[in-house]
Each structure stands twice: as C-alpha cells, then as structure tokens.
Amino acid sequence: MSFSYSSSSYSPGLFPSQEQEPKSTSTTRSHDEDNLIAQQAAAEAIAISRSTLSTTLIQGEQLQHCDDLRIRSEYVINKSNRLIRGMTFTGWVANIFSKDVEPPPSTLIVSSSNSTSNSASTTRNINSEYDKNEKGEDGVQKIVVTQDIDDSTNQLKLIPSQLINQASLVNNYNCNVIILKQCYNQACLDICNDLEKKTKESLHRAYTDMNMNSSSMNVHESDEIYIDAWKQLNQKFLSTQELHHGFIQNSRKAISSSKNNINNNMTQQMTQKSNSIESNNDIIHNLAMESNKKSMIDKYQKQEEHLNILASNMNELLHNGSSIAMSLQEQNELLDTLNDGTDELKESTKMVARKAVRVTYRSMWGLPKSDFKCTVIIQHIPSQKYLTIEPHHNNKLTLQPIPHPDASVFEVHERKGGTSTNQNDDKNTHKIIGFLNKCSRTWIGHSTFMSSVVCSAKKFGRNEEWELDDGIMHMTKILCVSANWNNGGWLLVDEEAEYFSFVGFDAASKKKASLWSIIVLPPDEIVQRSS
Q1: For residues 285 and 271, what is the distance between their CA atoms, to the nearest angstrom?
Q2: Which of 531, 526, 529 lies closest to 376, judged by CA?
Q3: What is the pLDDT of residues 460-479, one digit of tens each?
Q4: Could you count the other beta carbons within 10 Å of the beta carbon of residue 54?
Q5: Which of 149, 76, 77, 60 minimizes the C-alpha distance to 112?
Q6: What pLDDT is recorded for position 480?
Q7: 8 Å CB contact between 118 and 65
Q8: 3-state secondary structure 482-503
C-alpha cells in the first residue's frame, strides 16, 4: 500500500517549532498584565481595609462615649438618691456619717466630634508608619497606596454619607494614577481612563444635587458640610486628572523619542552591515546574546519588584486586619459592660423614683387610695405550685400543687399614682399594687423587724406595696417596695424549705429572684367577698 502526500496538506502553522514563538509572546504579555492586576487589587484591598479600620475606630469611640454617658447618669442617680434620703431624719443622719457621691472625671464626657477626631488621628498615625517605608531595603521603588494627598481616613471624618461613593471613586482613581506613573502600559491606561469618566460623572451628579438643595431658602449646617466636602473631592479629582494627563503626555513624548532613536540606530546598523558582512554577523551574534541576557535580567528584576510590592501590601493588610480584630474585641467587651450597666441604671432609676413617691406621701394626709382591679392566683413557675396561706398557722405562706378556692386567691388593688421614669410615657409607669387574701382578708407584705414575707396586715400600708417587673403579669418577678430600707427587694423563695425572703433591688439580684405568673381569674369564677 502506498501513501502520497500533497504539498498543500502541510501547513507551516502546524509545526510545533513555529507555534512556540507566538505562544511565548502571548504568555509574557498576559503575565505582565496579571502582575498589574494583582497590584491594583492589592491597592484596592488596602484602601478598603483602611476605610474599615477607620470606621471601626470611630464606632469604638462612639461606644466609649455612650459608656461615659452611662457613668455620668449613674452619678446623677446616686446623687439624687442621696438627696432624697436626706429629706428624712434618719437619712439625714446617715448622710452625715457617709461619704458624698464623687462626680466622674471631667474628661469622661466628651463630644462625639472630638471622639471622631481622635479616631481619625489614630488611623492617620497608623498610615504614616507605612508612608515612611515607601522604599524597601533593596532600594526598589514600590507601588504604594499611602499617598500624600488627603488620606481616606481624614476624609471619612469630613465627608457626609451622601458623598461616600464619590470619595471612594476619587481615592481609587488616585491610586491607579500612581500605579500608572510607575508601570505605564495600555491596560493600566484604560483602567485610569474608565475611572476618570466614572468619577467625573459621579461628581457632576453630586454637584447637581447640591445645587437643587441649595436653591431653597433654608441652608443648614449639614448643607455647608456637604458643599465643603464636594469642593475638597473635586479639587482632589482635578489634581489627580492633571497628574494623569501629564503622565500620558510625558509617555507619548518618551515613546516618540524612543522611536526616533530606534530609527537612527537601525539606519546606522544597516550602514555598518553594508560595509562589512562578516563583522556584522559577529556583532549580531553578540547583540543577540547580550539581548537575551538583558531580557532575562529584566524579567527577574520585574518579578522581584512585583513580589516586593505584594509583600509590602500584604504586611499592611495583615496589620490592618489585626488592628480591626483588636478593636472589635474591645468593642464586644464594652458592649457587655454597657448592657450590664444599662440594666443596673434602669433598676437604680426605678428605685429613686419609688423613694421620691414615698417622700411625697409624707406631705399628704395618709396614703393615696387604692382601687380594686382583679382577682388572681399566684403561681411559682419553676415548681408549678401556687402561693397559698395557712389560716391555722398564723397565715403562713406556702406553695401548694393545687390552688385552694379561698386560701390561694388574692385580690389585686392598685395604688393611685405610681412611679414613673418618664412622665410623658405611660409604658414606663410602674404601678404600685397590693395583694389581699380572700380567705384571711389580710395583706401580703414585708415584716417590719425581719427580712421575710408575711400575710398579717389589716390595711394596705407602705410595707404591703408591691411592684411587677415592667408590669408584665403572665411571667414576672415581684418586688417589695419597702424591703431593704425602702430601696426595694425582689422576692426569692427557697423551694425545699418554702422560705420567702428578699434580695437586693439591683439587676444582679433581679437575676436571682424567683419567677412568678399572675393568673387573672375570669369573672364567673370570682366569688363575692364578704363584707
């Protein structure tokens, strides 16, 4: 069998040796573009990390300001408690032999603007440390994003929220122009031109919105801040645009000069080749060897420079990330302190309000009257037992698994008035109530000489005043207003010994108190009480 091959079946492009050269050129070109894209991504990541760090520090300063306000409020509440206690004779004597409430340091209460300024200066100091390291140990110039033009940290303090996008575009445009200065090519030039167009359009839209808002007669301080911020961004954009166009003109001049030099060199070389072919062959061979050697050295230097740039950027990203993590950890600890302190401040405010109401009682002829509200049974939620009295054992309070039709039923009477932490908000009004047993016709209250619960009073007095947690009845904790020397105390029961006592009035004691359910009986189950 014979095979014949025509000359047309062979194509020069099918030979591996002929495919290798354009493939190598394409790979080299894409590798340089990948390096540039990686540097630009690192620059954008650093800008984002700095913005995040600045926002985190500003948020931390705001939380610290809230904690300072909490400390100031605690001082006001403690001072008010001391003043109210001094309105009674025993309290006046106690104030004489006790130390006055010390005010918080004056440095605690600062304005939020000062807090923002402190956080901005902190991030500015962080950024300045990297500005000093613009060159590596080997002296290689690096592509850095810590430019001298108004850093992003300082802008976040001045720029309102409506111009954040414009500020980000201006900063991004500025970073890419700096990169264009150090490695000029078509890919980087296209990116800069696109960012220039987007930034210009965004600033123009912001300028249009600014003119529409300023056309009204009322000019607020926020409008002036908006105008000043826009002017700063526009000034930075114009300076960056001028720098951008200057790079392009200088690069075009350099390219034109380089072409002329190349043409002159080629003319001289052709002249030399025409004079002596043998000497030109030797020169061509030497030039090829030197060109290959120089090409390898240039590639190595570019790769080293690229790695040095990425290493510097990675170090800054690592530093910013650790700073953000540390700031968030401090903020979490501060939030826990604020949560506990807010609960404590709330209970202290309620205690001072109750004592203030009791002081007003002293100026009245007798206590305010009370109104009957409903009939209830009181269930201890953890044990699912019901509060019951034993009439044959001096009305001792116990917990029974089944409610008694009379001994476990109590009438709820509400004192007119009540305490309030906010006079304009009915939800913050805490009603003073009393529990009258249906069987014994006595009131549950606080023992005068012992810190225990009794049901022996014949009238609704000060020791028989109670308060529910935020007015919730189906799942609540119960506070005796007169316990702990009229500071208040949460009701606590020992399930095994069935012993009823009081703990403190603060938030920590409230967590230890027993949980109860006040179950309102329907009208058809209410038995008319005897006269």
Answers
A1: 17
A2: 526
A3: 988 999 999 876 788 899 99
A4: 26
A5: 60
A6: 93
A7: no
A8: CHHHHCCEEEEEECCCCEEEEC
